[in-house]
């Protein structure tokens, strides 16, 4: 394919007739992409492409990939991109950190260059952070063609969003609740000419009760479109969504099992009494000093407490949870990505979808209650071929949960070697920090005062649905 010079995408160009929208899908590792109703028996395995150009990606987008440090296509990209470029709907199943965003962004951008228009593609994401991340990926990959993207999420003023939509961006990345608000209330906004629809993290979209909203959105989208559906698992809900939104899709997968972690990830557990968790946490952070780490906790209160504890000890820790304002959440992520803070203490709001390339260590301070969440948590490190370490704290109360996680992984993980004598030297200093953190938590709770719980009982508003409750 001849090289294409840098050029600006114009809104005036005519739209394509049929090859408009796409869907993304994941399939079993090493298996060829197949129609869900067909077998792979007639397919011949091909050599894995070593470059994006071999996948059919045009030169200007290949240059963008190179500038972003994408040395070679990941497995999901190698499987999905050639099929998406043929104009077929896709279902993609892939482990977290597999490079799914580029797998659907590159075919959409390439199609956009052939027939540019406003409101060309729509990407639906379950959380605000993931929406912003996807938008940045589109902007980076489409930098050579001046692609315009807009993020439409809850927790932000609708007026600036309406103004942004009025400027007719090429790509919209949105959470379902806020998108539906604009479709119903923003004058002149319509997606009748949409060419591509992507539903990313489809299983999470459905877990968060977005199903009825997705149905309403799908009813106002054109039937002649390409659709990509990406999901970590193919549940019955996801299969129902597939039947409702995709037309004769192809399925690709790079997951060899339901619960799989990448081979470059070193996983350990640490079996210790609950009362010593804080001391062992500080010991591990000292062991990995200078490396970026995400500490996962189960509740908002514990996230805030651990952040205060670590700050008292001189660590650059920053909390991230669903009860922070949207600007605070984005600020926390920005500081962690820029390495101005090397430790992120987070609930499961950070467990899935977020691409933070420099994470070296994941510490499961509190074990998740299900194995799927464990997979997503440890998937924050060892991404895109890099190595990483994940250590899970197992107390006397967590043994059964840990056994279930090991059962899902189909293997027993080794215990991390932490000499008790060395660890307990830190006990006195950590005890002082614990007392300081208790005082800070009291002040923090008093400051919240009469604001009350952000997440009450009953039906959530659309604005609340696109945030994690962790």
TrEMBL record:
Q: What is its main location?
A: nucleus
> Could you tell me which InterPro entries the record lists for this protein?
DDX47/Rrp3_DEADc (IPR044765), DEAD/DEAH_box_helicase_dom (IPR011545), DEAD_box_RNA_helicase (IPR050079), Helicase_ATP-bd (IPR014001), Helicase_C-like (IPR001650), P-loop_NTPase (IPR027417), RNA-helicase_DEAD-box_CS (IPR000629), RNA_helicase_DEAD_Q_motif (IPR014014)
Record keyword Lipid metabolism present: no
All residue ranges annotated as the DEAD-box RNA helicase Q domain in the record: 50-78
Domain Helicase ATP-binding, first and last residues per copy: 81-252
Q: Which UniProt keywords apply?
A: ATP-binding, Helicase, Hydrolase, Nucleotide-binding, Nucleus, Ribosome biogenesis, RNA-binding
Residue limits of the Helicase C-terminal domain?
A: 280-424
Motif extent (Q motif): 50-78
Q: Which GO terms describe its biological process?
A: gene expression; ribosome biogenesis
Q: Region labeled Disordered — which residues?
A: 1-46, 442-470
- The catalytic activity of this protein is classed by the Enzyme Commission as 3.6.4.13
Mark out the compositionally biased spans (Basic residues).
Answer: 450-460
Q: Name one GO molecular function term.
A: hydrolase activity
Show the GO cellular component annotation of the record.
cytosol; nucleus
- Residue ranges with Low complexity bias: 12-33
Give compartment(s).
Nucleus
Per its record, the protein catalyses: ATP + H2O = ADP + phosphate + H(+)
Q: Which family does it belong to?
A: Belongs to the DEAD box helicase family. DDX47/RRP3 subfamily.
Quaternary structure and interacting proteins, as annotated: Interacts with the SSU processome.
Sum up the protein's function in the record's words: ATP-dependent rRNA helicase required for pre-ribosomal RNA processing. Involved in the maturation of the 35S-pre-rRNA and to its cleavage to mature 18S rRNA.
PANTHER family, per database record: ATP-DEPENDENT RNA HELICASE RHLE-RELATED, RNA HELICASE
Q: What is this protein called?
A: ATP-dependent rRNA helicase RRP3
Q: To which species is this protein native?
A: Penicillium canariense
Top-level taxonomy: Eukaryota, Fungi, Dikarya, Ascomycota, Pezizomycotina
